[in-house]
Amino acid sequence: MPSMKPGAPVQVKDGALRRLALRASIMGRRLAIFSEDLGAVRAPGFGAVAAVFLGVTGLYGMALGGHTMTVVDGVGQPLGFAIDSIDVKGNHETSEIDILQTLWGTGAQSLLSLDPSAARQALEAMPWIEKASVAKVYPDRVAIDLAERKPFALWQNGQELFIVDRDGRPIVPFGADRFSNLPLVVGTGAETHAAEFLDQLEVLPELRARVRAYIRVGGRRWDLRLDNGVTVRLPEEQPVEAAAEVARMDREEGLLSRDIAAVDMRIEDRMVIKLTPDAVVRRNAALKARQKLIARSEKDKPV
């Protein structure tokens, strides 16, 4: 991938550098005491002591002021440790530009200041990314390996529509037509119960192919909205068995192709059919015509 010029660094405090400065100060005092006791080392001159003191003080001040990363980058870049290339693998839904911006957002511009753990956490906070690994490849490369979340269904919650994974966790709002073929699940709790229910319906491929929406009702049971507008109301207990009975009736008698609005399977051992309004009108008209025929036949009977 081509080289990228990072943006302005984010200033952060560095506890490790603060501890290093403190240790350097303690070591300097111990060395001076050791020299005085044994006489084996000449006591440092004023200039050397002043240089050490100013250096340690400067490091400690930078740590307190939150300029550690800036200074480390300033030292690392001229030495050839500037981040020159970033290799990204495993991204399908996440753009490389977003990944790079997230990496630069940690404030690192060189491998010396890059914190792989902080970079990993920042990447895993992105919507599509499930897991991330970040590795330094000296002198100037970063290797990023990603595992993204898999879209499983579209979840409609009120007026909002989200792409969710198999566990029902929202990933991003729906906005791409290429995800329109995902199963549509509707209602509170539908997103977390959909995977188990849809897996069970795999035994009824002819019925499942006709389902346009899986509607969670009362957090307890499912309705199936078919491609022709018919609603199949399933019971809370043994919903797949009830759906199988509907599929059988459709194969044998063309149930779902008739002029009906709903098939209600919630009552045990009974199927309730609800007609469409037009079918009700035609049925009522047929009943009236039948009653007229019966009345006429009664009138024509000999006394």
Please outline the helices and strands.
Elements: H1 15-38, H2 46-65, H3 68-81, E1 85-89, H4 96-104, H5 116-124, E2 129-137, E3 141-148, E4 153-157, E5 160-164, E6 170-173, E7 184-186, H6 190-200, H7 205-208, E8 211-217, E9 221-226, E10 231-233, H8 239-253, E11 260-264, E12 272-275, H9 277-300
Parallel strand pairs: 1-3, 4-7, 7-8, 10-11
Antiparallel strand pairs: 2-3, 4-5, 5-6, 8-9, 9-10, 11-12
Name the descriptors.
alpha/beta; 43% helix; 12 strands; 303 residues; 9-stranded mixed sheet; disordered N terminus
Question: Can you describe this structure?
Answer:
The chain is α/β, with parallel strands linked by helices and 303 residues long. The protein is 43% helix and 21% strand. It has nine helices and twelve strands. The strands form two sheets. The protein has a nine-stranded mixed β-sheet with strand order 6-5-4-7-8-9-10-11-12. It has a three-stranded mixed β-sheet with strand order 1-3-2, covered by helices on one side. Helix 1 (15-38) runs antiparallel to helix 2 (46-65).
Strand order of the largest sheet: 6-5-4-7-8-9-10-11-12
Structural class: alpha/beta
Order of helices and strands: HHHEHHEEEEEEHHEEEHEEH
Number of helices: 9
Query: Sheet bearing the most strands, described?
Result: 9 strands, mixed
Kindly state the number of beta strands: 12
pLDDT < 50 stretches: 1-14, 16-21, 31-43, 46-68
CA-to-CA gap between the ends? 103 Å
Average pLDDT reading: 79
Radius of gyration in whole Å, from Cα? 36 Å
Q: What's the helical proportion of residues?
A: 40-55%
